[in-house]
Design a protein that fits this description.
This protein has 10 helices and 8 strands. It is α/β, with parallel strands linked by helices. The protein has an 8-stranded parallel barrel with strand order 1-2-3-4-5-6-7-8, surrounded by 8 helices.
Length: 239
């Protein structure tokens, strides 16, 4: 059965909206674990717009399941990862002007830099995933540079507004998941998945883990973190 990794970035976003010390993303992470999350995800951005270095260091100490650090492939971030040693690093693209990650990391353009980062991290026994679009060429490159796994970007499907577009984009995701599994890459999926779109993934047994943040945190505002996580975990269990 696929696992659930809960991203608590948006708890930090709410904190930063008022530039205060609450709500606390660390507390949200612990509540998510108590509710059955299999991992905790944060994205430490170069501009520190939501998650701070302090959050990352505390989470590394207190997370009991799996601590996943999303980051850009830069020397600064590599240094932080080598220092704190998360259970998994997911390499993602990063633009200053974006509200959230808009697409996968382009390995055709950034192959050399990303390959060097993968080698540095893996040499320090830190597994590496690469967040990529559901494109066979990108998946093959991730395999070539010895990534341990990929996280397939699901935003194009989750954001699709017509049945035809949903069908087309999901077909690409399905093919990407199966190709990744065939190449012996671990397969995670994420971005935009909510309590409704998660149901489309029924039967895709090659998926190891769903990375979900915004929809869970949004529901948690209304029903509480533990209930929001339990509800999503149950939907995944039914897949």
């Amino acid at each position: 059965m696929a696992g659930l990794a809960v991203n608590v970035d948006h708890v930090a976003t709410l904190r930063e909206a008022r530039r205060v010390h609450y709500p606390e993303p660390v507390t949200a992470a612990l509540l998510a674990e108590l509710a059955g999350a299999d991992g905790i995800v944060v994205h430490l951005r170069e501009d520190r717009r939501h998650i701070h270095d302090r959050d990352v260091r505390i989470l590394r100490q207190v997370v009991q399941t799996k601590f996943i650090l999303e980051m850009a492939s830069t020397s600064e971030m590599v240094g932080i990862a080598l220092d704190i040693k998360p259970d998994l690093v997911t390499l993602v693209p990063e633009k200053t002007e974006e509200l959230t990650t808009e697409g996968g990391l382009d390995l055709i353009v950034h192959k050399r830099v990303v390959s060097e980062t993968v080698t540095l991290l893996r040499d320090s026994s830190i597994p590496v995933s690469i967040f990529i679009d559901p494109d066979p060429d990108q998946i093959k490159l991730a395999h070539q540079i010895n990534a341990d796994m990929v996280e397939i970007h699901t935003g194009s499907f989750c954001d699709a507004t017509t049945a035809a577009k949903k069908e087309k984009t999901f077909s690409k995701i399905t093919d990407a998941v199966k190709l990744s599994s065939k190449l012996k890459l671990g397969v995670n999926v994420g971005h935009g998945i909510c309590y409704k779109t998660i149901k489309a993934f029924k039967g895709l047994k090659e998926i190891n883990e769903f990375s979900i943040g915004h929809s869970i945190v949004s529901r948690a505002v209304l029903v509480g973190m533990e209930k929001a996580v339990r509800e999503m975990a149950m939907l995944i269990k039914e897949l």
